[in-house]
Design goal:
single chain; alpha/beta; Rossmann fold; 7-stranded mixed sheet; two-stranded antiparallel ribbon; 7 helices; 9 strands; about 30% helix; binds S-adenosyl-L-homocysteine
């Protein structure tokens, strides 16, 4: 699986501006046991480089996308990050591995998914992750600011609360675009003076962000 991800990354070297993943992200992909994050009947497919269904209409993202989104945040080992869309908890585990002295807050709107991801992450010993149940649309202001924010579900635009909770110098990675269609993986950077820059990196396909965002 990791070989396939490395090939994808090399082929899309414009995404990261280099033909390989950073060392910590590459090591995290090797370290996190993806087969323990997918349903039992799909364990044989866990190390294929593809998205898989995790039940309740949701999916665990393709490993290449997990790797690129993680790398695009350009994190330091002590950073605190926010993920919106815990799903299986796999992406959170990858982030937690990249942040040995840091912390991951992750929010999941589907209660059953949040409960099983929390149980799984505790069982596997990821003690620098907290799974919150609820709508991630407003982020987690009590834990802000975040050095990185990752949204693993697609919306038309970036929720303002998430931009507000980004630390100056921090990055937010999220698929933007219409539901059920191709979206664009987008990196927002908040410069030290607070100015936002935006870079569109890759066409992707994610499940929709639900909850309060839909009322807009
Ligand atoms: N990162 C996950 C995959 C995410 S799939 C993994 O590694 O397995 C997208 C997830 O976002 C789904 O579980 C979906 O329920 C969740 N989601 C959708 N809208 C949300 C919202 N407003 N707040 C929190 N989670 C949300």
């Amino acid at each position: 699986m990791v070989e396939a991800v490395r090939r994808d990354v090399a082929r899309n070297d414009d995404v990261l501006g280099r033909p390989r993943l950073s060392g910590p992200v590459d090591e995290a992909l090797l370290a996190v046991p993806r087969h323990l994050f997918v349903p039992d009947e799909l364990q044989l497919l866990a190390y294929e480089n593809r998205a898989l269904p995790i039940g309740l209409g949701q999916t665990i993202s393709q490993p290449t996308i997990v790797a690129l989104m993680t790398d695009l945040l350009e994190l330091a080992p002590t950073d605190t990050v926010l993920e919106v869309g815990t799903g299986s908890g796999y992406q959170a585990a990858v982030l937690a591995t990249v942040l040995p002295q840091g912390y991951v807050h992750t929010i999941e709107i589907v209660t059953d998914l949040a409960l099983s991801a929390r149980k799984r992450l505790v069982r596997l010993g990821y003690d620098n992750v907290k799974v919150h149940t609820g709508d991630g649309y407003r982020g987690r202001p009590e834990h802000a600011p975040f050095a990185g924010i990752m949204v693993t579900a697609a919306a038309e635009r970036v929720p303002q609360a998430l931009i507000d909770q980004l630390r100056p110098g921090g990055r937010l990675v999220m698929p933007l675009g219409p539901q059920g269609d191709t979206q664009w993986l987008t990196v927002l950077e908040k410069l030290p003076d607070g100015v936002l820059t935006r870079r569109v990196v890759l066409p992707v396909r994610f499940v929709p962000l639900t909850g309060e965002v839909e009322g807009r």
